[in-house]
Write a structure and sequence with these properties.
By secondary structure, the protein is α/β, with parallel strands linked by helices. It has two domains: 88 residues, 3-Layer(aba) Sandwich (Rossmann fold); 123 residues, Rossmann fold (3-Layer(aba) Sandwich). 40% of the residues lie in helices and 16% in strands. The protein has ten helices and ten strands. The strands form three sheets. The protein has a five-stranded parallel sheet. Strands 2-1-3 form a three-stranded parallel sheet, sandwiched between helices. Strand 4, helix 7 and strand 5 form a beta-alpha-beta unit. The radius of gyration is 19 Å and the shape is globular.
Length: 278
């Protein structure tokens, strides 16, 4: 049996570091959270962020907006938060209602307060290897691999997924760690031909049970970023019970999720430090 790569321990270690950094500031860092609509999953995620933020010495302000709010009103709130000197960083909880242009919303956020790391400015700076707010989930995956002493340099990393907020930035961060990266996606033919060659396999497509035990090389490292609600349960992209027989594997839930929250809070304190010139 191989290792279960829990996200709980590395997340707790990072949050402890965040708490130490926030305690050295002359004020309490503040995270704004915009929540549009009443999606149950989004509400659960927000509640988790609020709880973990409190434990890291960070205040949170939640702005709950109705599902049918006009896009212009949402953009107006973003403008206000951009100008509010008491807010160090803020996020707009995804997903947004279909009538709202998510890209337009993201681009309205001041890059200095973009603690999700999703604006084109922060993405571009990350791509160029410049100082930036890193997207929380990809950065969390890298931090998790480092916590478990996974060597990335020279290793073949296969990323399944090409989204703007996980797949693409994750491939960029892996390249920055000198891994050799292959990106696969929903249109990739003969997917197992690629996954079987991976020293490090990361799946982030939201397709439950996509990665089977016979698709993974023995001794590989497998990180499951996919989260899909199936009935009353949460499923990952990876068939954990099969894969853990051949490879170290992260579970869903309890894997990357805690790391995403921890990295978000780390970005908030970094924003506060930059504001005061640290």
């Amino acid at each position: 049996m191989y290792r279960t790569l829990s996200g709980k321990e590395p997340a707790e270690a990072l949050i402890l570091q965040v708490k130490r950094k926030s305690g050295k500031l002359d004020y309490t860092p503040t995270l704004g959270i915009i929540l549009v609509g009443g999606d149950n999953a989004s509400q659960i995620y927000v509640n988790t962020k609020v709880k973990k933020a409190a434990g890291a010495g960070i205040k949170t302000h939640i702005h709950k907006l109705p599902e049918k709010i006009p896009e212009g009103e949402l953009l107006g709130l973003i403008d206000k938060l951009n100008e509010d000197e008491h807010v160090d960083g803020f996020i707009v909880q995804a997903p947004l209602p279909k009538h709202i242009d998510s890209l337009r919303v993201i681009e309205r956020i001041d890059p200095k307060k973009d603690v999700d790391g999703w604006t084109s400015v922060n993405m571009g700076r990350m791509f160029l290897g410049m100082d930036s707010f890193l997207p929380a989930t990809p950065a969390g995956v890298i931090r998790m691999l480092e916590y478990y002493d996974v060597k990335l340099e020279g290793k073949h990393a296969v990323v399944i997924g090409r989204s703007n907020i996980v797949g693409k930035p994750l491939a960029t961060l892996l390249l920055g760690k000198n891994a050799t990266v292959t990106v696969c996606h929903s249109k990739t033919k003969n997917l197992s031909e690629y996954t079987k060659t991976a020293d490090i396999l990361i799946s982030a497509v939201g397709m439950p049970g996509l990665v089977k035990g016979n698709m993974v090389k023995r001794g590989a490292i497998v990180i499951d970023v996919g989260i899909t609600k199936v009935g009353a349960t949460i499923k990952g992209d990876v068939e954990f019970d099969e894969v853990i027989k051949n490879a170290d594997c992260s579970p869903v839930p309890g894997g990357v999720g805690p790391m995403t929250v921890a990295m978000l809070l780390n970005n908030v304190v970094e924003a506060a430090e930059r504001k005061v010139g640290k």
